[in-house]
Known about the structure:
6-stranded mixed sheet; alpha/beta; 16 strands; two-stranded antiparallel ribbon
Amino acid sequence: MPVRARYSRWDGTQVGFELDADDVLSEITDDLLYHGDLNAALRRLLQSGFRDRNDERIAGLRELLEKLRRRKRDELERYDLGGVYDDIAQELREVVDMEREGIDKLQQEARESGDARRQEITDEVAGERRMQLDLLPPDLASQVRELQNYEFTSSEARERFDELMEKLKQQLMQSYFNQMAGAMSDVSPEQVQRMKDMFDSLNRMLEQRERGEPIDPGFERFMEQFGDFFPGNPETLDELLEQMAQQMAAMQAMLNSMTPEQRAQLQGLSEALLDDMDLRWQVDRLSHNLQGAFPQAGWDRRYQFNGMDPLGFAEAAQLMERLGDIDQLENLMRSAASPGALADVDIDKARDLMGDDAARSLERMAELAKLLEDAGLIEQKEGRFELTPRGMRKIGQNALSDLFAHLAKDKLGRHDQDYAGIGHERAYETKPYEFGDPFNLSIERTVRNAIARAGGGTPVRLSPEDFEVERTETFVRSSTVLMLDLSLSMPMRDNFLAAKKVAMALHSLISTQFPRDFLGIVGFSEVARELKPEQLPEVSWDFVYGTNMQHAFMLSRRMLARQTGTKQIIMITDGEPTAHLIPGMSEPFFSYPPVQETVDATLTEVARCTKEDIRINTFMLDANSHLKAFVEKLTQMNRGRAFFTTPETLGDYVLVDFIEQKRALRTGR
């Protein structure tokens, strides 16, 4: 089937483009060039966030963590964990009041009957019942135990009490295992027995796995028997156990967050409500086994509640689970060292906790590294990301584009206007043939001219005026070494990023538009060293003092000695020479302010470059008087040129000068 595309007029409502790898790499280009660390640049992007090409804000982890902490703070400042008992106590008081009314009603009926014996017996029973009610202990657990053994006078009060006990049992079980809320809604003897069987099977599987024995009954058979207890449909035993560990850890967190008195009340109430000793034992056994299997589930978590809103059992358990999810997400985000670490985030939970926008930001942040890997811009080696050759080229293109963006196109010409000649390099343009031109015939243009002149049909008859030939230009090869100052003063004066960006841009320009040219790179501080293009993106400044131009000129001269064509050195620096090598000495000599010995040693290398017809063009980022004096002396000796510039205009100067020199060499001007 042919692919069809539909087009519509832009009205401002359409989503423009999705986030792509070029967007991401552009975002980290400056950071990578400045610090020289791809992984650190990705981490900082992860922390700070950015805006995509649709101007949509992709929130960083700092912003998302603050949003998550604010949600947690709001929950803690709203609720009162002690309120778990308020509703129970109130409902028990209402049951007791209802029973007292029933006693009063029973006595009233006896008096109205006129039967003295009945009235006497009724008064005696009523007195006993009132005394039992008056002597109810103050704590809830004891009240529940007493009322469970109490013989109610009022059938309505008995029914209300039974309903309350049923509800509390359900809530208590749900507080332990909220995910099984549906199954726990039935606490009939048959269902309680199934619960005990389920817990026993689960405990046996856990204990067998811990001992390294075959697991029986096995996960599949277990789910066939008890799958209705787990509406989340876990697909593996590990997934099921992890879910239950989170549930029980949430209950433990609630206990940890209570006062000793509150905790004692809850435990007593639990014993009073769940009078099945075997069920309690199975639950305790499961808690012990899960703590051993999942020690990092947060069993020691506790929270400080400061609010006023009371919570029931079930609501408190759900809140604890929610707070546990917040803690888990917070820990994951805080420890994320790379975008790939966010792949473990449960996006649905993140959406529940922070909203759609935050979840979308997390989802897109998790894609960053994969986008770059899929695009072939980075690769993972030994647990770290590294730029691929394609990524290095893209970084250079980004740097070059940034610099070209500051220039007027008519100023640079962007190398679009070529000068015709009779050399051997194709200019990828054609012209009508003239007598004396090399007969480099452009077949396509020639045949097209003949058809335009004579019309279609075969054979195509050519005429001399149809001939077009390819233009050529005289090729002059040039060899350049870029000397990049890596001394500590460069970042201290905010000059380093501009210089690094120029180095990347110049490499990109030469490798793409002048592939036959040579570009070497020398970094220098206390000593100099040759830099390979693939090292350039991750080169950073040296944490040493010293600007050893002498050594840098020496290395540059040796590199250019192996090259042909016109030769030049481009030096970018913000300081005068303060270090040089002394024959026979293992360490360079350093002095600030610079001494004449260092200046002389450096100028000696300048003289050697001059003798070998190497021009030195200097771009100064800090035009202090000492540097000016040195550079003026250098240019007098070498007949090169000097530019006093700033970080903002450095790229303009270097690229314009380089391209204009290429044009001058090509045209012979």
